[in-house]
Design goal:
about 250 residues; alpha/beta; Rossmann fold; two-stranded antiparallel sheet; 8 strands
């Protein structure tokens, strides 16, 4: 066998090896964070800093919470703005949004944090009625908006945050429409996408038993944190760790 023949043979073998053993896809490097009721995107600041430090590109969605359809639309816009696939993360009501928006082909996986994981036809309101929270501090205004009683906000929403921080969150809370809470999902992305769930065991806003039921139904990989509903703020390192695991393990 002459030198040219040997080189050609080696190249052919290398090509066959490449076809039989394709290179592993790189981990997902885009993260889209979606907030829930009564909070806004600033609550993700700690998580976003960690993810950015670790080399991820992060988008924080500021959904208006005036309608479920609009919230899905602005989340979809954030997903599509990235090149390549993303991990979609939702806190609380944000879980409703990512369940619908997550069917986007650019979404590689879903992370639910103290979140609702609805099935098709379920709304936040129907899930809450199924397994009510300990708290009864959520009220409705005369014109159809929801809010958390400021006097109960620290205990019921953000018990593991300093009192001063919880007080400011209470004063600046975003009030969603009652209509948004009653809107059912029409698609459930967790049926076709891998999912992770951070269960907050001291949560007084979304019953931990409801969180466990929804995560089990979805087949989510579960991590439990002894935290309040605001654990995405108070336990940012633990939450970011789950998101990074999802980015590393999701289908690319």
């Amino acid at each position: 066998m002459n030198k040219i023949t040997r080189i050609a043979s080696a190249l052919a073998l290398a090509l066959v090896a490449t076809l039989n053993h394709p290179a592993m896809a790189a981990p997902v490097k885009n993260i889209v964070l979606v907030h829930g009721f009564f909070a806004d995107g600033s609550g993700w600041q700690g998580v976003a800093r960690i993810l950015t430090r670790d080399g991820y590109s992060v988008a924080v969605v500021q959904e208006p919470e005036t309608s479920f359809a609009e919230d899905v639309k602005v989340t979809t816009r954030a997903i599509n703005a990235f090149d390549g696939k993303s991990i979609l993360v939702g806190h609380s009501y944000g879980g409703m949004v990512i369940t619908e928006a997550g069917v986007n082909e650019k979404v590689a996986g879903l992370v639910y944090v103290s979140a609702f994981q609805p099935d098709v036809g379920e709304s936040l309101a129907t899930l809450v009625k199924k397994t009510p929270p300990v708290s009864e501090s959520i009220k409705a205004t005369a014109d159809g908006y929801l809010y958390v009683d400021q006097a109960r906000f620290h205990a019921d929403f953000a018990a593991d945050l300093p009192a001063a921080d919880a007080k400011f969150m209470a004063m600046s809370q975003v009030m969603p429409t009652v209509q948004t809470a009653g809107a059912p999902v029409t698609q459930a992305a967790w049926k076709t996408k891998p999912s992770w769930a951070v269960i907050t065991t001291a949560d007084r806003t979304v019953n931990p038993e409801l969180q466990r039921f929804m995560a089990a139904r979805a087949g989510s990989k579960v991590v439990e944190i002894n935290g309040s509903h605001a654990a995405f703020i108070a336990h940012a390192e633990a939450v970011a760790k789950v998101i990074e695991q999802a980015a590393d393990q999701a289908d690319h």
